[in-house]
Design a protein that fits this description.
The complex is a heterodimer of chains A (about 625) and B (about 210).
Chain A (H helix, E strand, L loop, with lengths): L1 H4 L2 E15 L10 E9 L6 E7 L6 H11 L24 E4 L5 E5 L4 E5 L7 E5 L5 H10 L2 E3 L6 E4 L5 H13 L7 H13 L1 H18 L8 H25 L20 H6 L10 H11 L3 H11 L9 H23 L3 H5 L2 H14 L15 H16 L9 H12 L2 H15 L8 H17 L1 H9 L9 H5 L8 H12 L7 H19 L4 H9 L7 H17 L5 H7 L10 H7 L8 H13 L1
Antiparallel strand pairs in A: 1-2, 1-7, 2-3, 3-4, 5-6, 5-9, 6-7, 8-9
Chain B lengths: L4 E8 L6 H10 L12 E10 L2 E10 L6 H8 L4 E7 L3 H5 L1 H11 L5 E7 L11 H11 L2 E4 L8 H17 L12 E3 L19 H5 L2
Classes of the chains: A alpha+beta (about 625), B alpha/beta (about 210).
Chain lengths: ~625, ~210
């Protein structure tokens, strides 16, 4: 009886057929020449098949493959194989077998010498080259045995129309009705099986959670009575309470971070406070204290005009009123000198200076696409656009190597908007660029380094989230690119941008505090990202969509809390100390530093010391 | 909203050629010349109907400046269609097409449908690239070509929809693996379980797309 079932009839055979591509399983047979058959089985589900078998099965493939891959002129080479006639059909070991039912379409190409089979699941199921003539006869046979239509786009592509198979349809339907897995096409099921093998622990939990979701979240759609739900709930909570602690010990223990404390925000630095901290020469008395106040609460809007010039290193913190007046004159001249350099460039010079022309064209374009919805920059022929343009062009002359990179106009816009003075805005912009010019490296090395650093710090605070991101193609942190490039300019309102920037410009409490701001936001979004099982696209989209939804004071409180956690963590690594500019283990501050900054307590850094003495002021 | 398929598109090309404006014209049917320049990537989406099926286009709009190329490359992955845009009034944007195309081909899946677009066709008086040149480039590189104007909306619908049709046909032909999201195609949530493989030449379809809310 068994013999009858396996009975097979050969409808067609052709030798000299080379296997050009196939699924990974057949990699060892690629480029080998063999015989192609169409076979028909008398009593089986897969009635007709396309089969291919290499001429010499014993050929050891590894060496062979490399050689063939390099030479790649198989058609011209005449290799002789021992076997030339088709052996007996019943004993023949078949190699590659494609069930006619699985053929979705097939294509004839290369002057009718190449046949490609598609199954709609993988890019190419298999591809054969006919070395002894064309495949016209095979084509006519296949078109006779299969119901096909030519594709509209390519008349050499034949699409197979399969009759509805009631059994398959039924099976699909029953899977579908379960609908536990949103995308429960067959591959997902296999993925689940594979996951069980590779990560049994996580997969089990994941699957249980889906069952819970199924029961809890869609009761209106399913007939589950309350008893069942109650039972499930009880079993889950009991499991959690009895097993949790003991079982989790088994898994590698993550060192604990110190407790997170809240550091409340303070009031913005006021005009009165500012005035009180200057002596009769207009020199600031206690710079550390001022910086700390700015870090805690920012600057009152009406005082920004003055304070930003210090924050952006235009005015030295220890300068007197007289010194500043002198500086203004010098900087004024210096600016207009540089401005004249590009203003005076002749047409011919420009034509012969492609790097300059390129930067100029880009600035022209971008000035018209920067904050145009703000009144200050709105409307055609707005003189402020000209200021924006002139400053950026002058910056090109000031720092030609950096030149102009997109994002710079976003950084200049709030500064010019606030100062409304070309020269002041230029020098403040220079100060800002000095802080973050690596963002605009032409090879983006600075951005990549920051993204990497962010990954490192996030891994310290939220290893679970970093692990999740790594597994979802997002370990490069590219979704934070815009945040970092223009310091959240695109995510926040104009007022919030100004507040955040001035806090960050204070340089407190550590280097790269903006990375901790990122960590604080990501920590807040962790649940949304992970519970929704977001992938690369969804993560990027979710982060992009936070635009306009971020609460700056809350984020700063959190970021500062994170700073203290990191700083006090016992397992803090030098890697992170370097990123945040914290003293490395075993290094002592130099004697001068100890004396000048904190004579009483050499172990404390300036931030910490001033912070402690300031507690009464800020609360 | 229910859809039979989701196609991922990416819009690429030099800075200032009108990528974001094309997207906005297609998704919102409006032209906004004062749109902020794109940093990183931005998203747009719109539902279209092909062969009686609802198809959601998820469009990734990228920054064009050379410096950001290495970041943009990571966005090619998993795109089913690409709109490669140049500005007919600026020859250099046309001259850079080859590097864009090389980049796209190298970092995307081999089946990605690429549509070449010469934008700003409303600025005829400032034209620097002839239509025939665009056509010849497209022919030479096996791309579909169209001149558009994001300002007047001329051919904008067609550019996005024809690309989708091309992708749809490839699915019908079995060339695209619809179960592998790396190909930029996702089956709609209501559609996947009952219909992992499509009916042959589009015959019996349609009913599914319209049956859902």
């Amino acid at each position: 009886m068994g013999d009858v079932l396996m009975e097979c009839m050969e409808i067609f055979s052709q030798d000299g057929v080379q296997l050009k591509s196939a699924q990974a399983t057949y990699v060892n047979y690629l480029n080998l020449v063999g015989t192609l058959y169409i076979t028909e089985y008398a009593n089986s589900n897969c009635k007709r098949c396309l089969e291919w078998k290499p001429n010499d099965v014993t050929v050891d493939s590894d060496v062979q493959d490399q050689e063939w891959a390099v030479v790649n002129t198989v058609q011209k080479r005449s290799r002789t194989f021992s076997e030339s006639q088709p052996p007996d059909a019943s004993t023949r070991p078949k190699f590659l077998k494609v069930n006619f039912n699985d053929i979705k379409s097939f294509k004839i190409s290369n002057k009718n010498r190449q046949l490609t089979i598609f199954d709609g699941k993988s890019e190419v199921t298999c591809c054969f080259i006919f070395q002894h003539g064309d495949c016209d006869y095979l084509l006519s046979l296949m078109r006779g045995l299969l119901k096909t239509v030519s594709a509209k786009r390519d008349k050499h592509l034949y699409i197979v129309i399969h009759g509805d198979d009631p059994e398959t349809a039924q099976l699909d339907k029953s899977f579908a009705e379960l609908n536990i897995f949103q995308d429960s096409s067959h591959p997902s099921w296999w993925k689940l099986v594979k996951n069980f093998q590779e990560r049994p622990y996580e997969t089990t939990f994941e699957t249980f959670s889906r069952v819970t979701d199924f029961v809890y979240r869609s009761p209106d759609q399913r007939d589950i009575d309350d008893d069942q739900r109650e039972l499930l709930h009880r079993s889950l909570t009991e499991y959690a309470s009895t097993h949790c602690q003991g079982d989790y010990e088994v898994i590698a223990k993550v060192p604990e971070l110190p407790e997170r404390k809240d550091y409340p925000r303070g009031r913005p630095l006021s005009t009165e406070q500012w005035k009180n901290l200057q002596n009769h020469e207009g020199k600031l008395e206690d710079v550390d204290q001022i910086k700390l106040m700015i870090f805690r609460g920012g600057v009152a809007p009406n005082l920004r005009y003055e304070v930003w010039k210090y924050l952006l290193d235009y005015f030295p913190w220890d300068s007197t009123q007289v010194e500043r007046q002198k500086l203004l004159c010098e900087k004024n001249d210096e600016y207009y000198n540089m401005k004249l350099q590009w203003k005076r460039m002749t047409r011919v010079q420009e034509d012969n200076f492609s790097d300059f022309r390129e930067r100029k064209n880009l600035i022209e374009k971008d000035v018209n696409r920067t904050d145009r919805t703000l009144d200050f920059y709105a409307g055609d022929n707005n003189p402020n656009l000209q200021l924006l343009y002139d400053i950026l062009m002058t910056y090109v002359m000031y720092n030609f190597d950096l030149g102009y990179v997109q994002g710079m106009s976003d950084l200049l816009s709030p500064i010019l908007h606030l100062l409304k003075n070309e020269v002041d805005a230029f020098w403040c912009f220079v100060g800002f660029m000095n802080k973050i010019n690596s963002n605009f490296d032409i090879d983006q090395a600075g951005m990549k380094e920051q993204l990497q650093n962010l990954h490192t710090i996030l891994g310290f605070i939220e290893p679970q989230l970093v692990n999740y991101l790594d597994k979802h193609d997002s370990g490069n942190m590219f979704f934070c690119f815009r945040w970092l490039l223009v310091w959240f300019k695109r995510e926040l309102s104009f007022e919030d941008v100004m507040r955040l920037w001035e806090v960050l410009w204070s340089g407190l409490p550590c280097d790269n505090f903006h990375l901790l701001v990122c960590v604080a936001i990501l920590e807040t979004e962790k649940q949304a990202l992970m519970e929704n099982n977001y992938g690369f696209t969804e993560i990027l989209k979710h982060i992009n969509d936070l635009c306009g939804k971020l609460d700056v004071p809350a984020i700063l409180v959190k970021a500062e809390g994170i700073f203290h956690q990191i700083k006090e963590a016992e397992h803090l690594t030098d890697n992170i100390r370097v990123i945040l500019g914290l003293p490395l283990v075993g290094t002592q501050p130099s004697p001068e530093e100890v004396i000048s900054i904190s004579p009483d307590s050499p172990d404390e850094d300036p931030y910490e010391q001033v912070y402690n003495t300031m507690q009464h002021i800020i609360t | 909203m229910s859809y039979a398929y989701l196609f991922k598109y990416i819009i690429i090309g030099d800075t200032g050629v009108g990528k974001s404006c094309l997207l906005l014209q297609f998704t919102d049917k409006r032209f906004q010349p004062v749109h902020d320049l794109t940093i990183g990537v931005e998203f747009g989406a719109r539902m279209i109907t092909i062969d009686g099926k609802q198809i959601k286009l998820q469009i990734w709009d990228t920054a064009g400046q050379e410096a950001f190329r290495s970041i943009t490359r990571s966005y090619y992955r998993g795109a089913a269609g690409a709109l490669l845009v140049y500005d007919i009034t600026r020859r250099e944007t046309f001259n850079h097409l080859t590097t864009w195309l090389d980049d796209a081909r190298q970092h995307s899946n081999s089946n990605m449908v690429i549509m070449l677009i010469g934008n700003k066709s409303d600025l005829e008086s400032r034209r620097e690239v002839k239509k025939e040149e665009g056509e010849a480039f497209a022919r030479e590189h096996g791309l579909v070509f169209m001149e558009t104007s994001a300002k007047t909306a001329a051919n904008v619908e067609e550019a996005f929809i024809n690309t989708a049709k091309e992708i749809y046909e490839k699915i019908q032909e079995g060339v695209f693996d619809i179960n592998n999201e790396a190909n930029g195609i996702k089956i709609g949530p209501q559609h996947s379980p009952t219909n992992p493989s499509l009916p042959g030449a589009g015959g019996a379809g349609g009913s599914q797309g319209s049956s859902c809310c």
